[in-house]
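Follow-up to my earlier ticket, as requested here are the two runs.
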Amino acid sequence: SVVLPAAEAVPAQDDVLNEKQAPAEQNKNKASLWSRLSRKGGKNETPGNETFNEKARPTTVAPPAAPNAEKRSLKQRFVDSYRKHYCPREAPTVVLPSCPTDKEKYSYMSMNRAWLFIKTEWYFFWYALYAVLTEVYIFMSLGITIFGKRFDLKGHNQKLRDHPLTVETAPTVDIYLPVCKEPIEVLANTWKHVGAMRYPGIKMQPVVLDDGAQDEVKFLAATFGFRPDFLEKLIPIHLANPKLAIVQTPQFFRAPGEQTWVEQGAGSVQEYFYRLIQPCRNTWGAAICVGSNAVYRREALVAVGGTAAAECSEDVHTGFYAVNRGWELAYAPIVLACGICPDTPRAFFSQQMRWCTGSLSLLTHRDFWKSDLAFKQKLCYLSGMMYYSSVATAAFFNPLPASVLLWTRPELMKYYNLFFALPSLLVGLIVIRAWARSPYTLSVQYTQVIMAYAYLQSFLDRIFGTKLSWVPSGNNKSHKNNRYRNMRVLAWCWTIAHNGLLISASVYRIMGGLAWWQVFPALLLDAFNLFIVHRFLFYVHAKEA
């Protein structure tokens, strides 16, 4: 969160010390609220004064309950909590998903939609670049979501009635089930739900693709529990539009208490994209394909040369090239499958880094800028890339204003500066939590720290031309790399550095006469940010414990 300054015109120091100042002079120095927010301070200024449905919860491979758990002492419960959240001795318990319930199926239908660093000195202009880029992204994203339309559920149901699936009308369907060293219970759970799908005749053919022994894998491992009506809800959309290449549905995740905090946060943070962003992008014909839970038209894939040969996010590239060649991509926010998320910080870091790398590779490729996509479509893709850049830079730029002010212009450090940061805090902690269908707890804030450093690493890889080897999200043994370690070291260094700057500046200025209450809100906000980042800093993986 950003602590932003509000410049205020105050009397010179000699006048402040003069308690017998004439009332006329005091009134002359008073400024309106607007002037305090807009005027530049003088050089001689001084410091002034839903509850989950239990029937819908996934099958859990739970560890045996501890004997006499209710009689454990406070110290023992503290040790148990520490080992669970920071230093697990065993790999996390696998919490298998079940297919979405009828209530969850349509839970993404309703979207419920949703600079100030004053130019006091020339040496604050460095902050303007970050502020401008962030605001451009925010206004771009707001424009896409404000004018985007809700999914037409009535129109969708009409397509189902107009194009019923029978033995004569149903096209053949191949279901690809990639395998790459995922836990065997995850694969068994997936295949069980795939086998329960309803489809006319014998026109559905599941195909298992065992890529565990290959160096590169083209498809993301399928770890989803599908509803039996998955194909019944999506194939008619294809039948209604012969130019439709891909129908994409949401990636949906539950967050039961048996999961790790990483799984809970990683699943909940996806709702905003699949429930709000994707439907709005679909309005402009710019929804993206994410691979999982999608139905592809074989004719379209053949026409565009098959799946795109991309190192990361080949599904996004495939959808882009299909649209660029005249095909269409539709997004239906109908929850038809439930999945599982990475359960450790390292695995989640690897997944997010891969997603960001895939987006950057597309947005920095000449094919994108020379494509025949409409301007509004390119704007949607560009907004996605700017999201990654804004999150990556926020971790470093957001904590700086308070420290910079205290060291350079302490007279501008006011307790009400925090008021400018309150809206973003309220939105992130309260508003979105009330809007979300999933439990939007502090686990989301914890995982967003991991996302910031993962995106930063992706940008560094792109700048320096280093490549990232692909590993599936479900294979925790393949996520060890120096990138995660390096970003952890950077997080430690940056956390110590900016907290040291803020605390030392606060002590120095308070001892010099600055009222403590002018600094306290900034310290309070910094303490909250420190609490949010501590999970990423202190987590010890099971095999490192």
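Run two:
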Amino acid sequence: MGMKWMEPMARPTHQLPPPGMSSCSKSPPNSGEVAGSNSMAWVKMFKKPGGGLKKSYQPGSMLSLALTKGLLNEPGQNSCFLNSAVQVLWQLDIFRRSLRQLSGHFCLGDACIFCALKSIFSQFQQSRERVLPSDSLRNALAETFKDEQRFQLGLMDDAAECFENILERIHLHIVSDTSTDACSSKSCITHQKFAMMLYEQFVCRCCGASSDPHPFTEFVHYVSTTALCQQVDRMLGKNERLRSDMFGELLQAANNTGDLRSCPSDCGQSIKIRRVLMNCPEIVTIGFVWDAEQSDLTDDVIRSLGPRLNLCGLFNRVTDENAKRSELHLVGMICFSSKHYSAFAYHTKSSKWMFFDDATVKEIGSKWKDVASKCIRGHFQPLLLFYTNPEGSPVSNEDAPRQTTMCPRLPPTPPSLIPAPVAKLTHAPAPQFSLLP
């Protein structure tokens, strides 16, 4: 399509491959492939004339990049889908700080996803190794979902569904009452930070008839890449400029494409569904639905991505006053290429975009366009986009569990947490840490 965002603003400030066909497992690279060139590079940079390294982590410093570590993916493990999700979660400041606030939970021992994630985060911060195993979380996922035969050891799986299920299990590890449709716990990271509380309704502009509102919660807002590109083509055909603040409107238009229903009063009119956001999520995840594992639309989709997201543009209506004013920043992305998952994330301390490919960690650049260029060169298909509120804060722990309670088995995921079915071919669907702010 040859389009690009006009004057992109500076950053602040799937068919699932069959098991056994993944190119996901790789041996760890040599140390030169991990962030930075070698340990002496940043040591030399921070040597003071009088001696000693600087003790504080400065924006843009290689010292702060020392906390970006790779994750092992040995031959046959096929853990790239999990490693990508973990790396993005670690780099999401709101999530990392929120998880650090919590310790008490409902624990499943070796099958506890909460403990496994806390353990990996602790190693990210404290370990001297530059490449770490993610086995504890892989094992916990496999044990948790063995009845469903999902996320089993050695088998490739879907990164988007892995991400959603990690969020769902975190909710169940923190909140014991799963009978309510809406979680009101102030300590639940899943609902307080990621959940989009919505309702759908059909309203006929001709006769005024309306359907009953249908409330639901989603953690990932899925959009068809084909519909997205059609909307971009439509705009360019009308000689409209594709501004960086229009991405939400593009996503909304794409989501509504072809979604017509008959008027509930049978007046003969076809009407579109209206989606209303009722809360103010601080982390919004956009999921892309691809018609094929390899698509000719990949480059066009990447060029259409906006570095900012306004919630008022994403939905037909927003009721929360804070949500009306919030502008979210793109800080993470999980991609798929050649039956393999990788991730990009914005490293706040260094003000750099980083690329995470299992054991390999590389600095990409300070601007989103640097990421877009690499994606186009490498034919990376975006799967999940992560937008966050730069003013976001950690969850409160005032109603969090004060102690850890061992449980033989957590209850099944309640219906209110199960993602609504999406007609899609996607590539798809503990120790404490305290150093980072």
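The only thing I checked on run two: The longest helix spans residues 159-174. Let me know what else you need.
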